[in-house]
């Protein structure tokens, strides 16, 4: 007989796994609640409680929840005002740093309302008013807001209407480079000491072009050479391979996307593929950028395990992993 599980010693994540394993064993594999209780070292009453939650709310009802913290002293009006403060540049409020940090927000709350909150408590308030910790987007100063607005309100809706009328699948495409020595992620380090990451010093690099659709599909191609119109045609051929219907591809205005070679290839397809350009300097309009953000974070977390000469293979494995996850791809869009 299994020893009883002491839930007090388990993390939220561990208890969630146990709950879901128990329910799956009963509801999907047909095991009896009594046998599962014995196997996992649980009380039968606990098992039946989980089954009741599952039958009412589904598997999501078994997700872990964190204990609610102490009630905030701030009123709704004060929180709404805090939201407005945080939409301003910190420099406008005489802070010396242009990005909001949790320490600065705690200082702002204390100066405006007189409440001294811990970082954890400040974090709860920020989530409550709809804020999250994010990496800021670098927006090119050359970007023309009017062109962006025109594309969002007129050009892209027109592209969508055309796609619906002509039974087209819309893809967004982009290119990116992966460097074995690049530092894509963040790390904790003592204040005042810039962290140093040791690398092999070998400048391994691989380039990638991909295109994603709102149907959860992605096509990609790795390459080592310079990106040209001929190379882009090679990718387009892969993109169109075994495509059942028409395709619309949205890319940035890179000149290689619109060379004579590309135009010649489009003519051969007789309208099956159409290519449209985004406004200049507007990467935030291309969801394929999120693929690169995700992939490069994966590279940052695991690249120290990559053997010399295997970096290209490593990046390809990450892209194939993304390719298998339709839900993830749809989330990018």
Structure description:
- Helix 2 packs across helix 3 and helix 8 (229-240) packs parallel to helix 9 (260-268).
- Strand 4, helix 9 (260-268) and strand 5 (273-277) form a beta-alpha-beta unit.
- Helix content is 44%, strand content 11%.
- It has three domains: 7-62; 76-128, no CATH class; 145-179 and 202-332, Ribonuclease H-like superfamily/Ribonuclease H (Nucleotidyltransferase, domain 5), CATH 3.30.420.10.
- The radius of gyration is 26 Å and the shape is extended.
- The longest helix has 21 residues, at 145-165.
- The chain is built from twelve helices and five strands.
- The model is unreliable at 185-191 (pLDDT under 50).
- It is α/β, with parallel strands linked by helices and 333 residues long.
- Strands 3-2-1-4-5 form a five-stranded mixed sheet, sandwiched between helices.
- The two termini are 50 Å apart.
Summary keywords:
Nucleotidyltransferase, domain 5, 12 helices, 333 residues, alpha/beta, 5 strands
**CATH fold descriptor of the largest domain:** Nucleotidyltransferase, domain 5
CA distance, first residue to last residue: 50 Å
Number of helices: 12
Whole-number average pLDDT? 82
What string, H for helix and E for strand, traces the elements in order?
Answer: HHHHHHHEEEHEHEHHH
Mass-distribution shape = extended
Sheet bearing the most strands, described? 5 strands, mixed
Rg on CA atoms, Å: 26 Å
- CATH homologous superfamily title of the largest domain: Ribonuclease H-like superfamily/Ribonuclease H
Q: What is the correct CATH architecture of the largest domain?
A: 2-Layer Sandwich
